[in-house]
Amino acid sequence: MLSSGYVYVLLNPSIQGVVKIGMTTRDPENRVTELSNATGVATPFILVYKEYFNDCHFAEKQIHTYLEQRNYRVANNREFFSIPVHEAINIIQNLKSQQKSSSNEEEYTSEINSGSNDISQLAESMLEEAKDYYYGNDGKLEDYDEALKLFKKSAKMGASESYWYLGNIYRNGDGVNSDLKIAMDYYKEGVKAGWVDCYAVMGSIYSLYPEYKHMENSAKCWSSYFANIANSNMKILYIGDYVSSFLINGWEIDNKSLLARYKNGVIAECEKSIHRYKTRNQDEFTKYTIKKYEQIQTFFKYLKEEYISEFVSGEGVIDNLFNVDGKAVLIVDINKGEFSIGDQILIQGGIMNLKSRINHIEMNRNLVDNAIKGQTVGFMIDGKYEEYGSIQSGWIVAKIK
């Protein structure tokens, strides 16, 4: 529940070079009086600035985390910061301005220091750094402890994806003791913060984990996931979980038109997973997992053509990816329909789904306007080559109506 109220800045003549930044759901003047009477400081506090927020608890948390990251905090778990008053006010105003802009409220007119840092940008930067430590990317050593710290900080500052990572860390036991309760708490926070993938994970947990088995909650989570993901890219991993949950429980599978966009990608991923598990010791869990992927694969193989054709009017398989003057060029064998310049396409492989647009089509070293079934052509697509570096041969290209 949102707690509307104020974030305030206080000064005290007896404490030089330090400001107190806190929040209250009441009149800040009343809070000043309480603090002045309770702290025993020789002189009373002075209210120098206040700003109203729809969720003052969250706003205070963002500001405190930002200031702590910049080493302004005087002591842990205290609201005192060694920062000039005008800088503290600018930071609060900047956050308020961002929130007004994102909610389409009227433009905020207070002057904002152009040198003040954007809190949301810092949160996203911290999130990316956390991912680098989590995966061991960008020259960093894989370090779950450091990743955990950064994910927690970036979550407090508003990077909603961080909650999904935190949930996964405690669900999988990555550097911590596996704790499904803590994981679920983070996924729930992620949902509140707007990270839709958390619905998908909870949908699976409610249907597959005995200690959390709650089929009504599972159905609600999946319903919320599909309601919120309709205009975005789904992860093939979650599509498989969704279909598996519904097949296991004998439920009617909805959203077939949306699922149809990912038919070939899901089938290919299931084939890989089945092959991988068949090379392991055939214990009960392995046998169960193979059966699960076979069921998912069968469902998609027999998904009616009417659902496929609603979205896909052309399809091909990628042979290769080339870098041409910094642009990505896909070499594609077309096995269905027709592609033309300007077509919107979906690139599928593994758990990846990438959307793009065809800018040029080349066939036998000539530029053409369209290409049809049976031809091998080159598609120059939107964006830079680096954005598509993970694409592999065998991935699917689908033209979306």
From TrEMBL:
SUPFAM superfamilies linked to this entry: HCP-like, Translation proteins
Classification via Pfam families: T5orf172
Protein name: Bacteriophage T5 Orf172 DNA-binding domain-containing protein
InterPro entries for this protein: Phage_T5_Orf172_DNA-bd, Sel1-like, Sel1_AlgK, TPR-like_helical_dom_sf, Transl_B-barrel_sf
Domain annotation Bacteriophage T5 Orf172 DNA-binding: ranges: 13-95
